[in-house]
Amino acid sequence: MRMSLKMVSWLGLVLTLLPSLFVFGGVLSLDTFKNLVLGGSVLWLATAPFWINQDRSRES
Amino acid sequence: MPVARDAHSKETLDTIDEFEREPVPPDEVKGFKSFLGMVAGEHIAGTEFVIGPLFVLHGAGARDVFLGLLVGNLLATLSWTLVCAPIAVKTRLTIFFQLERISGFSLVSIYNAVNALLFCVSASAMIGVSSSAIGVLLGLPTPGLTDLLPPGPVWVASVAVIGLVMAVVATYGFDRVSRFANVFAPWMPLIFLTGAIAALPGLGVTSVADFWPAAREKIWTGVPQAGQTKYGFWHVMIFAWLCNSAMHIGLTDMSIYRYARKASYGLASAAGMFIGHYMAWVASGILCAVALAQGNVNPSPGEIAHGSVGLAGVICVLVAGWTTANPTIYRAGLAIQGLLPRFKRWKLTMIVGLTATVLACFPAIVSRLDQFLGIYALVGIPIGAIVLVDVSLFRRLGLTPNLASVTGSRFNVAVALAWVGAIAVGYGLFRYTGADFFFFMALPGWFVAAFLYLLASVILQRRRPAPALREEAA
Q1: Range from B252-256, B332-336, B377-381 carrying the lowest mean pLDDT
Q2: Cα-based angle B386, B391, B397 (whole degrees, multiple of 5)
Q3: Are B239 and B71 in contact (CB under 8 A)?
Q4: Which of the 8 DSSP states describes residue B26?
Q5: Average pLDDT for B241-261
Q6: Mean pLDDT across the stretch B356-365?
Q7: Which of B178, B201, B312 sits opposite A26 (nearest CB)?
Q8: Do residues B455 and B392 touch, judged by C-beta distance below 8 A?
Protein backbone atom coordinates (compact mmCIF):
# COMPACT_ATOMS: atom_id res chain seq x y z
CA MET A 1 0.00 0.00 0.00
CA ARG A 2 2.77 2.37 1.00
CA MET A 3 4.75 1.63 -2.15
CA SER A 4 1.65 2.15 -4.29
CA LEU A 5 1.05 5.53 -2.68
CA LYS A 6 4.64 6.53 -3.33
CA MET A 7 4.39 5.51 -6.97
CA VAL A 8 1.26 7.60 -7.41
CA SER A 9 3.03 10.54 -5.71
CA TRP A 10 6.05 10.33 -7.98
CA LEU A 11 3.78 9.95 -11.00
CA GLY A 12 2.19 13.22 -9.88
CA LEU A 13 5.58 14.96 -9.91
CA VAL A 14 6.39 13.55 -13.36
CA LEU A 15 3.03 14.82 -14.58
CA THR A 16 3.84 18.22 -13.09
CA LEU A 17 7.14 18.61 -14.93
CA LEU A 18 6.99 16.60 -18.14
CA PRO A 19 4.19 18.47 -19.99
CA SER A 20 6.22 21.69 -19.95
CA LEU A 21 8.84 20.01 -22.15
CA PHE A 22 6.12 19.16 -24.67
CA VAL A 23 4.92 22.79 -24.64
CA PHE A 24 8.52 23.89 -25.19
CA GLY A 25 8.74 21.39 -28.08
CA GLY A 26 5.57 22.82 -29.59
CA VAL A 27 3.50 19.61 -29.33
CA LEU A 28 1.19 20.60 -26.45
CA SER A 29 -1.02 23.65 -25.95
CA LEU A 30 -0.65 25.86 -22.88
CA ASP A 31 -4.22 25.10 -21.76
CA THR A 32 -3.68 21.33 -21.87
CA PHE A 33 -0.39 21.85 -20.03
CA LYS A 34 -2.16 23.72 -17.22
CA ASN A 35 -4.72 20.90 -16.82
CA LEU A 36 -2.03 18.21 -16.74
CA VAL A 37 0.03 20.13 -14.17
CA LEU A 38 -3.07 20.53 -12.02
CA GLY A 39 -3.73 16.79 -12.26
CA GLY A 40 -0.14 16.01 -11.32
CA SER A 41 -0.29 18.41 -8.40
CA VAL A 42 -3.50 16.85 -7.08
CA LEU A 43 -1.92 13.38 -7.28
CA TRP A 44 1.13 14.55 -5.30
CA LEU A 45 -0.70 16.58 -2.69
CA ALA A 46 -3.35 13.90 -2.13
CA THR A 47 -0.89 11.05 -1.60
CA ALA A 48 2.41 12.47 -0.28
CA PRO A 49 1.10 13.41 3.21
CA PHE A 50 0.45 9.70 3.88
CA TRP A 51 4.11 8.66 3.58
CA ILE A 52 6.52 11.58 3.33
CA ASN A 53 6.69 12.50 7.02
CA GLN A 54 7.00 8.89 8.15
CA ASP A 55 9.99 8.54 5.81
CA ARG A 56 11.55 11.73 7.15
CA SER A 57 11.07 10.56 10.76
CA ARG A 58 12.97 7.36 10.03
CA GLU A 59 15.76 9.31 8.31
CA SER A 60 16.25 11.63 11.30
CA MET B 1 -17.08 16.43 23.33
CA PRO B 2 -15.95 19.87 22.13
CA VAL B 3 -14.86 20.76 25.69
CA ALA B 4 -12.77 17.59 25.96
CA ARG B 5 -11.23 18.20 22.58
CA ASP B 6 -10.41 21.78 23.50
CA ALA B 7 -8.88 20.68 26.78
CA HIS B 8 -6.76 18.09 25.00
CA SER B 9 -5.58 20.64 22.41
CA LYS B 10 -4.60 23.10 25.11
CA GLU B 11 -2.69 20.40 27.01
CA THR B 12 -0.87 19.38 23.84
CA LEU B 13 0.13 22.95 23.11
CA ASP B 14 1.24 23.65 26.66
CA THR B 15 3.48 20.61 26.81
CA ILE B 16 5.35 21.24 23.56
CA ASP B 17 8.93 21.64 24.74
CA GLU B 18 11.12 23.51 22.28
CA PHE B 19 14.14 23.89 24.59
CA GLU B 20 13.95 27.68 24.42
CA ARG B 21 16.03 28.17 27.61
CA GLU B 22 18.26 25.11 27.69
CA PRO B 23 20.58 23.29 25.24
CA VAL B 24 18.92 20.83 22.88
CA PRO B 25 19.68 17.39 24.43
CA PRO B 26 21.68 14.87 22.33
CA ASP B 27 18.70 12.57 21.80
CA GLU B 28 16.72 15.40 20.22
CA VAL B 29 19.16 16.30 17.43
CA LYS B 30 17.97 15.65 13.89
CA GLY B 31 19.52 14.10 10.79
CA PHE B 32 20.62 15.80 7.59
CA LYS B 33 17.52 14.99 5.54
CA SER B 34 15.26 16.49 8.19
CA PHE B 35 17.10 19.76 7.70
CA LEU B 36 16.99 19.46 3.94
CA GLY B 37 13.18 19.36 3.96
CA MET B 38 12.90 22.25 6.38
CA VAL B 39 15.42 24.54 4.69
CA ALA B 40 14.38 23.74 1.12
CA GLY B 41 10.75 24.36 2.00
CA GLU B 42 11.58 27.62 3.70
CA HIS B 43 13.59 29.09 0.85
CA ILE B 44 11.23 28.10 -1.94
CA ALA B 45 8.62 30.54 -0.91
CA GLY B 46 5.91 32.88 -2.00
CA THR B 47 8.35 35.76 -1.89
CA GLU B 48 10.28 34.13 -4.77
CA PHE B 49 7.30 35.20 -6.89
CA VAL B 50 8.14 38.78 -5.83
CA ILE B 51 11.95 38.88 -5.88
CA GLY B 52 12.46 37.28 -9.32
CA PRO B 53 10.08 39.81 -10.89
CA LEU B 54 11.75 42.68 -8.97
CA PHE B 55 15.02 41.98 -10.81
CA VAL B 56 13.09 42.22 -14.08
CA LEU B 57 11.27 45.42 -13.07
CA HIS B 58 14.53 46.99 -11.84
CA GLY B 59 16.25 46.34 -15.16
CA ALA B 60 18.96 43.89 -14.11
CA GLY B 61 20.83 42.48 -17.12
CA ALA B 62 20.80 38.75 -17.89
CA ARG B 63 24.52 38.37 -17.12
CA ASP B 64 24.08 40.33 -13.87
CA VAL B 65 21.30 37.98 -12.78
CA PHE B 66 22.93 34.64 -13.62
CA LEU B 67 26.40 35.56 -12.32
CA GLY B 68 25.18 37.61 -9.34
CA LEU B 69 22.91 34.81 -8.16
CA LEU B 70 25.71 32.24 -8.51
CA VAL B 71 28.20 34.21 -6.40
CA GLY B 72 25.63 35.49 -3.89
CA ASN B 73 24.08 32.10 -3.21
CA LEU B 74 27.51 30.48 -2.81
CA LEU B 75 28.41 33.09 -0.20
CA ALA B 76 25.08 32.59 1.59
CA THR B 77 25.60 28.82 1.78
CA LEU B 78 29.11 29.34 3.14
CA SER B 79 27.74 31.79 5.70
CA TRP B 80 25.35 29.17 7.07
CA THR B 81 27.97 26.43 6.98
CA LEU B 82 30.94 28.31 8.40
CA VAL B 83 29.29 30.86 10.69
CA CYS B 84 25.78 29.94 11.82
CA ALA B 85 25.79 26.14 12.09
CA PRO B 86 29.10 25.83 14.00
CA ILE B 87 27.96 28.31 16.66
CA ALA B 88 24.53 26.65 16.90
CA VAL B 89 26.01 23.15 17.27
CA LYS B 90 28.58 24.39 19.79
CA THR B 91 26.03 26.07 22.08
CA ARG B 92 22.81 24.14 21.19
CA LEU B 93 20.95 27.31 22.18
CA THR B 94 18.74 29.81 20.41
CA ILE B 95 20.44 33.12 19.69
CA PHE B 96 17.94 34.74 22.05
CA PHE B 97 19.02 32.74 25.08
CA GLN B 98 22.71 32.85 24.09
CA LEU B 99 22.49 36.62 23.73
CA GLU B 100 20.77 36.89 27.10
CA ARG B 101 23.78 35.15 28.67
CA ILE B 102 26.07 37.66 26.96
CA SER B 103 24.13 40.90 27.10
CA GLY B 104 21.73 40.53 30.03
CA PHE B 105 17.95 40.42 30.14
CA SER B 106 17.28 44.12 29.49
CA LEU B 107 19.31 44.29 26.31
CA VAL B 108 18.12 40.95 24.93
CA SER B 109 14.59 42.16 25.52
CA ILE B 110 15.20 45.07 23.16
CA TYR B 111 16.73 42.70 20.59
CA ASN B 112 13.79 40.33 20.94
CA ALA B 113 11.31 43.14 20.42
CA VAL B 114 13.16 44.41 17.33
CA ASN B 115 13.45 40.90 15.95
CA ALA B 116 9.84 40.06 16.56
CA LEU B 117 8.83 43.21 14.68
CA LEU B 118 11.13 42.36 11.76
CA PHE B 119 9.85 38.77 11.67
CA CYS B 120 6.29 40.08 11.77
CA VAL B 121 6.86 42.30 8.74
CA SER B 122 8.61 39.46 6.94
CA ALA B 123 5.77 37.02 7.65
CA SER B 124 3.22 39.63 6.61
CA ALA B 125 4.84 39.87 3.16
CA MET B 126 4.39 36.12 2.80
CA ILE B 127 0.77 36.29 3.92
CA GLY B 128 0.27 39.08 1.37
CA VAL B 129 1.72 36.93 -1.40
CA SER B 130 -0.51 33.98 -0.48
CA SER B 131 -3.50 36.29 -0.42
CA SER B 132 -2.81 37.39 -3.99
CA ALA B 133 -3.35 33.75 -4.96
CA ILE B 134 -6.71 33.63 -3.17
CA GLY B 135 -7.61 36.90 -4.89
CA VAL B 136 -6.98 35.36 -8.31
CA LEU B 137 -8.96 32.22 -7.34
CA LEU B 138 -11.97 34.26 -6.23
CA GLY B 139 -11.71 36.81 -9.01
CA LEU B 140 -10.95 39.65 -6.60
CA PRO B 141 -8.81 42.67 -7.48
CA THR B 142 -5.28 41.96 -6.20
CA PRO B 143 -2.56 44.57 -5.61
CA GLY B 144 0.27 44.58 -8.16
CA LEU B 145 3.97 44.61 -7.39
CA THR B 146 4.14 48.41 -7.33
CA ASP B 147 0.95 49.08 -5.30
CA LEU B 148 1.12 50.46 -1.76
CA LEU B 149 -2.49 50.40 -0.50
CA PRO B 150 -5.12 47.62 -0.29
CA PRO B 151 -7.52 47.49 -3.25
CA GLY B 152 -10.63 47.03 -1.07
CA PRO B 153 -12.33 45.46 1.99
CA VAL B 154 -12.76 42.05 0.34
CA TRP B 155 -9.00 41.85 -0.11
CA VAL B 156 -8.51 42.73 3.56
CA ALA B 157 -11.01 40.01 4.57
CA SER B 158 -9.20 37.35 2.52
CA VAL B 159 -5.86 38.38 4.08
CA ALA B 160 -7.43 38.06 7.55
CA VAL B 161 -8.66 34.50 6.94
CA ILE B 162 -5.36 33.30 5.43
CA GLY B 163 -3.27 34.93 8.16
CA LEU B 164 -5.39 33.40 10.91
CA VAL B 165 -4.99 29.88 9.51
CA MET B 166 -1.22 30.36 9.18
CA ALA B 167 -0.95 31.62 12.75
CA VAL B 168 -2.79 28.57 14.12
CA VAL B 169 -0.50 26.14 12.26
CA ALA B 170 2.62 27.99 13.46
CA THR B 171 1.60 27.64 17.11
CA TYR B 172 2.23 23.89 16.93
CA GLY B 173 6.03 24.32 16.85
CA PHE B 174 9.02 23.03 14.90
CA ASP B 175 7.90 19.45 14.24
CA ARG B 176 4.53 20.37 12.83
CA VAL B 177 5.99 23.21 10.78
CA SER B 178 8.62 20.81 9.44
CA ARG B 179 6.00 18.17 8.57
CA PHE B 180 3.91 20.79 6.77
CA ALA B 181 6.91 22.00 4.72
CA ASN B 182 7.98 18.44 3.89
CA VAL B 183 4.81 17.74 1.88
CA PHE B 184 5.24 20.74 -0.37
CA ALA B 185 9.05 20.91 -0.62
CA PRO B 186 9.52 18.56 -3.61
CA TRP B 187 6.49 19.88 -5.50
CA MET B 188 6.92 23.65 -5.30
CA PRO B 189 10.24 23.99 -7.18
CA LEU B 190 8.78 21.86 -9.96
CA ILE B 191 5.92 24.32 -10.36
CA PHE B 192 8.42 27.18 -10.79
CA LEU B 193 10.49 25.11 -13.23
CA THR B 194 7.61 23.73 -15.26
CA GLY B 195 5.96 27.15 -15.49
CA ALA B 196 9.14 28.80 -16.74
CA ILE B 197 9.83 26.12 -19.36
CA ALA B 198 6.26 26.25 -20.66
CA ALA B 199 6.31 30.06 -20.70
CA LEU B 200 9.44 30.34 -22.84
CA PRO B 201 7.68 29.84 -26.22
CA GLY B 202 5.58 32.90 -25.29
CA LEU B 203 8.82 34.90 -25.42
CA GLY B 204 9.85 33.37 -28.76
CA VAL B 205 12.13 30.74 -27.25
CA THR B 206 11.57 27.42 -29.02
CA SER B 207 15.08 25.95 -28.75
CA VAL B 208 17.90 26.04 -26.21
CA ALA B 209 19.90 28.28 -28.55
CA ASP B 210 17.11 30.88 -28.47
CA PHE B 211 17.28 31.26 -24.69
CA TRP B 212 20.22 33.59 -24.13
CA PRO B 213 19.30 36.15 -26.80
CA ALA B 214 15.72 36.23 -25.44
CA ALA B 215 17.01 36.45 -21.86
CA ARG B 216 19.01 39.57 -22.77
CA GLU B 217 16.46 41.22 -25.01
CA LYS B 218 13.06 40.24 -23.57
CA ILE B 219 13.47 39.20 -19.90
CA TRP B 220 16.44 40.83 -18.14
CA THR B 221 16.78 43.69 -20.60
CA GLY B 222 18.99 45.93 -18.47
CA VAL B 223 16.32 48.64 -18.72
CA PRO B 224 14.26 49.36 -15.56
CA GLN B 225 10.50 49.87 -15.71
CA ALA B 226 9.29 53.46 -15.26
CA GLY B 227 9.82 54.69 -11.69
CA GLN B 228 12.18 51.85 -10.71
CA THR B 229 15.88 52.19 -9.82
CA LYS B 230 18.51 50.32 -11.87
CA TYR B 231 19.91 47.06 -10.50
CA GLY B 232 23.27 45.67 -11.65
CA PHE B 233 25.54 42.73 -10.77
CA TRP B 234 26.39 44.05 -7.30
CA HIS B 235 22.72 44.57 -6.39
CA VAL B 236 21.82 41.01 -7.42
CA MET B 237 24.89 39.45 -5.78
CA ILE B 238 24.58 41.28 -2.47
CA PHE B 239 20.82 40.67 -2.40
CA ALA B 240 21.28 36.91 -2.98
CA TRP B 241 23.95 36.76 -0.29
CA LEU B 242 22.37 38.96 2.35
CA CYS B 243 18.59 38.69 1.88
CA ASN B 244 18.68 36.04 4.62
CA SER B 245 21.68 37.54 6.41
CA ALA B 246 19.77 37.94 9.67
CA MET B 247 19.44 34.16 9.61
CA HIS B 248 23.01 33.17 8.70
CA ILE B 249 25.60 35.78 9.76
CA GLY B 250 22.97 37.32 12.04
CA LEU B 251 22.66 33.85 13.65
CA THR B 252 18.88 33.75 14.16
CA ASP B 253 18.94 30.34 12.44
CA MET B 254 20.68 29.03 15.55
CA SER B 255 17.05 28.31 16.51
CA ILE B 256 16.96 25.73 13.73
CA TYR B 257 20.57 24.52 13.46
CA ARG B 258 20.90 23.84 17.20
CA TYR B 259 19.02 20.66 16.32
CA ALA B 260 21.70 19.68 13.75
CA ARG B 261 23.81 16.62 14.57
CA LYS B 262 26.86 18.22 12.88
CA ALA B 263 27.86 21.74 11.89
CA SER B 264 28.34 20.57 8.32
CA TYR B 265 24.55 20.35 8.06
CA GLY B 266 24.77 24.04 7.24
CA LEU B 267 25.38 22.79 3.71
CA ALA B 268 21.67 21.86 3.62
CA SER B 269 21.09 25.55 2.99
CA ALA B 270 22.55 25.07 -0.52
CA ALA B 271 19.31 23.28 -1.47
CA GLY B 272 17.28 26.28 -0.43
CA MET B 273 19.66 28.71 -2.06
CA PHE B 274 20.23 27.15 -5.46
CA ILE B 275 16.72 25.83 -5.95
CA GLY B 276 14.80 28.60 -4.19
CA HIS B 277 17.02 31.63 -4.69
CA TYR B 278 18.49 30.71 -8.07
CA MET B 279 16.20 28.54 -10.14
CA ALA B 280 12.98 29.96 -8.65
CA TRP B 281 14.09 33.62 -9.01
CA VAL B 282 15.12 33.00 -12.61
CA ALA B 283 11.85 31.13 -13.26
CA SER B 284 9.64 33.79 -11.68
CA GLY B 285 11.55 36.45 -13.64
CA ILE B 286 10.63 34.60 -16.84
CA LEU B 287 6.98 34.36 -15.76
CA CYS B 288 6.97 38.09 -14.97
CA ALA B 289 8.44 38.91 -18.39
CA VAL B 290 5.61 36.93 -19.99
CA ALA B 291 3.03 38.90 -17.97
CA LEU B 292 4.67 42.18 -19.03
CA ALA B 293 4.73 41.03 -22.67
CA GLN B 294 1.00 40.30 -22.40
CA GLY B 295 0.37 43.89 -21.34
CA ASN B 296 0.01 43.47 -17.55
CA VAL B 297 2.42 46.22 -16.45
CA ASN B 298 1.76 45.73 -12.71
CA PRO B 299 1.12 42.03 -12.09
CA SER B 300 0.56 40.43 -8.67
CA PRO B 301 2.36 37.19 -7.71
CA GLY B 302 -0.93 35.32 -8.08
CA GLU B 303 -1.50 36.73 -11.57
CA ILE B 304 2.08 35.91 -12.60
CA ALA B 305 1.66 32.26 -11.58
CA HIS B 306 -1.88 31.93 -12.90
CA GLY B 307 -1.00 33.31 -16.33
CA SER B 308 1.62 30.66 -17.02
CA VAL B 309 0.76 27.65 -14.84
CA GLY B 310 -2.98 28.02 -14.21
CA LEU B 311 -4.66 26.78 -11.03
CA ALA B 312 -1.63 24.73 -9.93
CA GLY B 313 0.45 27.93 -10.05
CA VAL B 314 -2.08 29.72 -7.88
CA ILE B 315 -1.98 26.86 -5.34
CA CYS B 316 1.81 27.08 -5.42
CA VAL B 317 1.77 30.81 -4.62
CA LEU B 318 -0.66 30.15 -1.77
CA VAL B 319 1.32 27.36 -0.10
CA ALA B 320 4.73 28.85 -0.95
CA GLY B 321 3.82 31.91 1.09
CA TRP B 322 2.45 29.65 3.78
CA THR B 323 5.52 27.42 4.18
CA THR B 324 7.72 30.47 4.67
CA ALA B 325 5.33 32.35 6.90
CA ASN B 326 5.10 29.36 9.24
CA PRO B 327 8.74 29.19 10.40
CA THR B 328 8.93 32.99 10.39
CA ILE B 329 5.97 33.31 12.75
CA TYR B 330 7.48 30.48 14.82
CA ARG B 331 10.78 32.38 15.08
CA ALA B 332 8.94 35.54 16.08
CA GLY B 333 7.17 33.57 18.82
CA LEU B 334 10.56 32.46 20.13
CA ALA B 335 11.81 36.06 20.05
CA ILE B 336 8.88 37.30 22.10
CA GLN B 337 9.20 34.45 24.56
CA GLY B 338 12.70 35.70 25.30
CA LEU B 339 10.99 38.95 26.23
CA LEU B 340 8.12 37.38 28.17
CA PRO B 341 9.44 34.01 29.41
CA ARG B 342 6.44 33.35 31.67
CA PHE B 343 4.03 33.23 28.74
CA LYS B 344 3.47 30.07 26.73
CA ARG B 345 5.22 30.20 23.37
CA TRP B 346 2.13 29.10 21.43
CA LYS B 347 0.08 31.99 22.81
CA LEU B 348 2.79 34.48 21.85
CA THR B 349 3.09 32.88 18.41
CA MET B 350 -0.61 33.38 17.91
CA ILE B 351 -0.32 37.08 18.81
CA VAL B 352 2.59 37.47 16.38
CA GLY B 353 0.61 35.73 13.64
CA LEU B 354 -2.33 38.06 14.14
CA THR B 355 -0.05 41.13 14.08
CA ALA B 356 1.54 39.91 10.84
CA THR B 357 -1.93 39.45 9.41
CA VAL B 358 -2.82 43.08 10.12
CA LEU B 359 0.41 44.28 8.46
CA ALA B 360 -0.25 42.02 5.45
CA CYS B 361 -3.30 44.08 4.59
CA PHE B 362 -0.91 46.73 3.22
CA PRO B 363 0.62 45.76 -0.16
CA ALA B 364 3.54 48.15 0.46
CA ILE B 365 5.01 45.35 2.59
CA VAL B 366 5.33 43.28 -0.61
CA SER B 367 6.18 46.01 -3.12
CA ARG B 368 8.98 47.38 -0.93
CA LEU B 369 10.21 43.93 0.13
CA ASP B 370 13.76 44.47 -1.17
CA GLN B 371 14.24 47.65 0.85
CA PHE B 372 12.66 46.13 3.96
CA LEU B 373 15.01 43.14 3.80
CA GLY B 374 17.94 45.58 3.56
CA ILE B 375 16.84 47.35 6.75
CA TYR B 376 16.32 43.95 8.38
CA ALA B 377 19.96 43.07 7.55
CA LEU B 378 21.33 46.41 8.72
CA VAL B 379 19.58 46.19 12.11
CA GLY B 380 19.70 42.46 12.75
CA ILE B 381 23.10 41.14 11.76
CA PRO B 382 25.39 43.14 14.09
CA ILE B 383 24.11 40.95 16.95
CA GLY B 384 25.31 37.88 15.05
CA ALA B 385 28.82 39.34 14.93
CA ILE B 386 28.71 40.05 18.67
CA VAL B 387 27.61 36.50 19.57
CA LEU B 388 30.17 35.00 17.16
CA VAL B 389 33.03 36.97 18.74
CA ASP B 390 31.87 36.12 22.27
CA VAL B 391 31.47 32.37 21.65
CA SER B 392 34.50 31.87 19.38
CA LEU B 393 37.16 34.37 20.46
CA PHE B 394 36.70 35.51 24.05
CA ARG B 395 38.26 32.53 25.84
CA ARG B 396 41.24 32.53 23.47
CA LEU B 397 41.78 36.24 24.13
CA GLY B 398 41.51 35.87 27.91
CA LEU B 399 38.18 37.69 28.06
CA THR B 400 35.14 36.52 30.01
CA PRO B 401 32.40 35.17 27.70
CA ASN B 402 28.72 35.18 28.68
CA LEU B 403 29.52 38.15 30.90
CA ALA B 404 25.95 38.93 31.90
CA SER B 405 25.22 35.43 33.16
CA VAL B 406 28.54 35.34 35.03
CA THR B 407 28.11 38.72 36.71
CA GLY B 408 24.33 38.72 36.96
CA SER B 409 24.24 41.95 34.93
CA ARG B 410 21.05 42.88 33.09
CA PHE B 411 22.74 45.24 30.61
CA ASN B 412 26.13 44.59 28.97
CA VAL B 413 27.34 48.03 27.88
CA ALA B 414 29.83 46.58 25.37
CA VAL B 415 27.01 44.85 23.47
CA ALA B 416 24.89 48.02 23.43
CA LEU B 417 27.80 50.15 22.17
CA ALA B 418 28.69 47.66 19.44
CA TRP B 419 25.10 47.19 18.24
CA VAL B 420 24.12 50.85 18.16
CA GLY B 421 27.55 51.82 16.76
CA ALA B 422 27.27 49.30 13.92
CA ILE B 423 23.78 50.46 12.92
CA ALA B 424 24.89 54.09 13.11
CA VAL B 425 27.99 53.48 10.99
CA GLY B 426 26.00 51.41 8.47
CA TYR B 427 23.25 54.02 8.15
CA GLY B 428 25.82 56.83 8.08
CA LEU B 429 27.65 55.14 5.22
CA PHE B 430 24.33 54.66 3.43
CA ARG B 431 23.60 58.39 3.65
CA TYR B 432 27.17 59.51 2.99
CA THR B 433 27.68 57.38 -0.11
CA GLY B 434 24.16 57.99 -1.46
CA ALA B 435 23.75 54.23 -1.99
CA ASP B 436 20.38 53.04 -3.31
CA PHE B 437 20.38 49.75 -1.37
CA PHE B 438 20.62 49.22 2.42
CA PHE B 439 22.20 45.82 1.75
CA PHE B 440 25.46 47.45 0.68
CA MET B 441 25.95 48.77 4.22
CA ALA B 442 24.88 45.67 6.14
CA LEU B 443 28.20 43.87 5.77
CA PRO B 444 30.35 46.81 6.93
CA GLY B 445 27.96 47.03 9.90
CA TRP B 446 28.64 43.38 10.75
CA PHE B 447 32.40 43.90 10.84
CA VAL B 448 32.04 47.17 12.75
CA ALA B 449 29.94 45.36 15.38
CA ALA B 450 32.57 42.61 15.80
CA PHE B 451 35.36 45.17 16.13
CA LEU B 452 33.49 47.51 18.48
CA TYR B 453 32.35 44.66 20.73
CA LEU B 454 35.88 43.31 21.03
CA LEU B 455 37.30 46.76 21.66
CA ALA B 456 34.66 47.75 24.21
CA SER B 457 34.96 44.41 26.02
CA VAL B 458 38.74 44.70 26.24
CA ILE B 459 38.47 48.22 27.68
CA LEU B 460 35.58 47.48 30.07
CA GLN B 461 36.87 44.14 31.32
CA ARG B 462 40.39 45.57 31.90
CA ARG B 463 38.93 48.49 33.84
CA ARG B 464 37.08 46.04 36.03
CA PRO B 465 39.13 42.83 35.89
CA ALA B 466 37.32 39.79 37.18
CA PRO B 467 39.78 36.92 37.31
CA ALA B 468 37.59 34.99 39.68
CA LEU B 469 34.64 35.36 37.38
CA ARG B 470 36.82 34.39 34.44
CA GLU B 471 37.78 31.18 36.18
CA GLU B 472 34.18 30.54 37.03
CA ALA B 473 33.18 31.04 33.42
CA ALA B 474 35.92 28.68 32.24
Answers
A1: B332-336
A2: 95
A3: no
A4: G
A5: 90
A6: 89
A7: B201
A8: no
Taking one residue from A and the other from B, the number of pairs with CB-CB distance under 8 angstroms is 86
B193 to A38: CB separation less than 8 angstroms, yes or no? no
* Tens-level pLDDT at each residue, chain A (60 residues): 788 999 999 999 999 999 999 999 999 999 999 999 999 999 999 999 889 877 655 554
In order of A29, A33, B70, B458, the CA distances from A22 in angstroms are 9, 8, 29, 66
User: With 70 as the cut, is the pLDDT of residue B56 above it?
Assistant: yes
Domain encompassing residue B311 = 30-367
Q: Is residue B401 part of a domain?
A: no
**Residue of chain A with shortest Cα separation from B181:** A53
Reported pTM: 0.86
Distance from C-alpha of B390 to C-alpha of B98, rounded to nearest angstrom:
10
Residues of B in contact with A24 (CB under 8 A): 197-198, 200-201, 205-206
Residue B422 lies in a domain: no
Is residue B278 situated within a structural domain? yes
Nearest beta carbon to residue B310 from set A13, A17, A38: A38
- The total of structural domains in chain B comes to 1
Looking at this predicted complex, what is its ipTM?
0.94
Closest chain A CA to residue B204: A24
Separation of alpha carbons B471 and B474, rounded Å: 5
Output the domain CATH number for residue B81. 1.10.4160.10
* Residue B339 domain flag: yes
